[in-house]
Amino acid sequence: MDLELTEEQQMMRDTARDFAQKEVAPKAAELDKTGRWPSEIVARMGEMGLMGVAIPAEHGGAGMDAISYALAMEEMCAACASSGVIMSVNNSLYCDPINKYGTPAQKERWLAPYASGKKLGCFGLTEPMSGSDAQTMATFAERKGDKWVINGSKNWITNGPHADTILVFCITERPAGGTAENPGGKVKHTAFLVDRGTKGYTQAKHDEKLGIHAAHSCTVFFENVEVSDEHRLGPVGDGFKVAMSTLDGGRIGIASQALGIARAAFEKATAYAKERKSFGTVIANHQAIAFMLADMATEIDAARLLIWRAAAMKDKGVRHTTESAIAKLFASEMATRVAHKAIQIHGGYGYSQEFAVERHYRDARITEIYEGTSEIQRIVIAANTLK
Ligand code: CAA
């Protein structure tokens, strides 16, 4: 076992860190306060190869691996978790499944411009009445001649208000007599690519959230949206597997987001503890504070190793469902604990909007929810360990 990063991986980490610290971090507080969509950062991420890190160069990506992607995500999210999740949705929830399941023609049309950052993608699985129980969705695509007609809605769609294309999951088969409310047995799903501007595909205004304010999400609607079979990603009936295997990769991205947020909170807490004085010395000299920092450092390291393991398995083409779930579960809950301690170390200042740790605390919280709640990760892990 060799835990040394390759030269390319180190280069990706250093390049992403330099960009994130110089161009993104100085804007993070303003983006959080105003909730402004960071179009200039999205454009720069494209130029830097960050919108398709692990997508082959022939399809517009940077041609790196999943470990490099995790490293870049950590760096981006240490600077700005909003910018980081915009990047992760495009990389792992949109480009990755097209790279895996797309035909050559689909890759040319729907992958290359997105992996190179010229266009932006999003992922539509969740619905108002189906989040964790993803199979029970109501959105339906009906085969009519050589067309598919999609009706339904999806919500919490990160990048939804700005994305050029959505990868949307629909039921395409339910048992006779089944309805959206009561499918009446096992349903089959299929994935489709729907472009912005397609008649009947509309987006609501963006959601107001606790954190990641600049990463806009919204509800999207499909009203008799017609697409041809060329828009179908993967075989008819295999949509749920496409969604689940995509999330195996996506969860590495969100775990890396949590890691980046935690690292930022830890670095700020460490710097503060070395400056702030009480009882005649800097507070870092008090064991109560030093132990908190030691626990934070330990948990951050553990999360990083879990993420690298899952990413290394993805790079080897080995199924990594459980390892991704473990990494995401641990890293996301760890980020909340670390950000919580960072506020504690800052005392009253930590609760103030003048210090970034309160933003990290709010931003960390979503990582325990999206791309599968902690409870869903435990279901996935238990299903494997109880086999
Ligand atoms: N890879 C490939 N296939 C998989 C798979 C995987 N990781 N996981 C399951 N499958 C297959 C199974 O083998 C099974 O196939 P068969 O029917 O052929 O046997 C089929 O999918 C159904 O599997 P399950 O019976 O395990 O499905 P389930 O209904 O019990 O659900 C679940 C499993 C893990 C709970 C799943 O519903 C789940 O992950 N829920 C959470 C949804 C989620 O993460 N949503 C995130 C939305 S995206 C988002 O959040 C983006 C954002 O904003 C940034």
Give structural notes.
It is a single chain. With 387 residues, the protein is α+β, with helices and mostly antiparallel strands. Helices cover 51% and strands 15% of the residues. It contains ten helices and ten strands. It has helices at 7-34, 39-47, 66-79, 81-101, 104-115, 239-275, 287-316, 321-346, 357-366, 374-385, and strands at 121-124, 140-144, 147-158, 165-173, 188-195, 201-203, 217-228, 232-233, 277-278, 281-282. The chain has a four-stranded mixed β-sheet, with helices on one face. A four-stranded antiparallel β-sheet has the order 2-3-7-6, with helices on one face. A two-stranded antiparallel ribbon has the order 9-10. Strand 9 (277-278) and strand 10 (281-282) form a beta hairpin. The two termini are 27 Å apart. Acetoacetyl-coenzyme A (CAA) is lined by residues 85, 89, 93, 123, 125-126, 132-135, 156, 158, 240-241, 244-245, 247-248, 321, 370-372, 376, 379-380.
Q: How would you sum up this structure in a few lines?
A:
With 387 residues, the chain is an alpha+beta fold.
H-E string: HHHHHEEEEEEEEHEEHHHH
Instruction: Give the helix level as a range of percent.
Output: 40-55%
**C-alpha Rg, in Å?**
21 Å
- In terms of per-residue confidence, which ranges show pLDDT below 50 for 5 or more consecutive residues? none
The proportion of residues in beta strands is 15-25%
CATH class call of the largest domain: Mainly Alpha
CATH superfamily of the largest domain: Butyryl-CoA Dehydrogenase, subunit A, domain 3
Taken from the alpha-carbon principal axes, the silhouette is globular
Major sheet: order of its strands? 1-4-5-8
Strand element count? 10
Distance between the termini: 27 Å
Q: What would the average pLDDT be, to the nearest integer? A: 97
